[in-house]
From TrEMBL:
<protein>
    <recommendedName>
        <fullName>Limiting CO2-inducible protein B/C beta carbonyic anhydrase domain-containing protein</fullName>
    </recommendedName>
</protein>
<dbReference type="InterPro" id="IPR040703">
    <property type="entry name" value="LCIB/C_CA"/>
</dbReference>
<dbReference type="Pfam" id="PF18599">
    <property type="entry name" value="LCIB_C_CA"/>
</dbReference>
<feature type="domain" description="Limiting CO2-inducible protein B/C beta carbonyic anhydrase">
    <location>
        <begin position="81"/>
        <end position="200"/>
    </location>
</feature>
Amino acid sequence: QIAGALGTVALAGSSPAMAATAQATKKTADILQTVRDSKRVVGGVFAMGALAGLLGSKLTSSKVTSTRAVSDKITKVYPGAVPNKQLVNQVSGVLQTKYGFGPDSLVATSLCCGEVSRVLEQDFSNVYTDNFSMGGLAGFPFVGTVGFGAMASHIPDGGSCLVVYGPHVGVDSQGVVGTTERRGRVNGGACCGSAIAAYGQ
């Protein structure tokens, strides 16, 4: 099984021959309904990226509005957003209970190359042990179809694969959405400069 979380979920077979597209589409709908039924499992496509951006920020005392104010801003902009570890626990719990995902599962990530994405990636890796990185700028899977096939060949026999993908959206220490402070840099900037640059093309 290949499942994706963080706002979009996809499921396909992990047998030697991949499941037919129609069957995968039906299973995708089933998984999406499960996620919808599991309130607050996924608050939005970019909600976790917002938290990862905040956690990855260098928060200096002279600039920080307040942790509560920033948290309130995240909740307002991304209703249903939850901290990374809570998301990981809820997603892994649903996948274990409903679909039997366990230690024989592989996590494959397609998150932006930016350092703020590593927090969520590591939290999922802590549950599923290994990580197959497919990510690229703005979360697009740079590996393409060949790399996706390679990822599928890394799924343990009889196991499953959780695919987590998406860009990150920062919220800086003053509650400004789309920006973040980075370690060692005086001035903050766009959290996902690649997405901003692509949008401007």
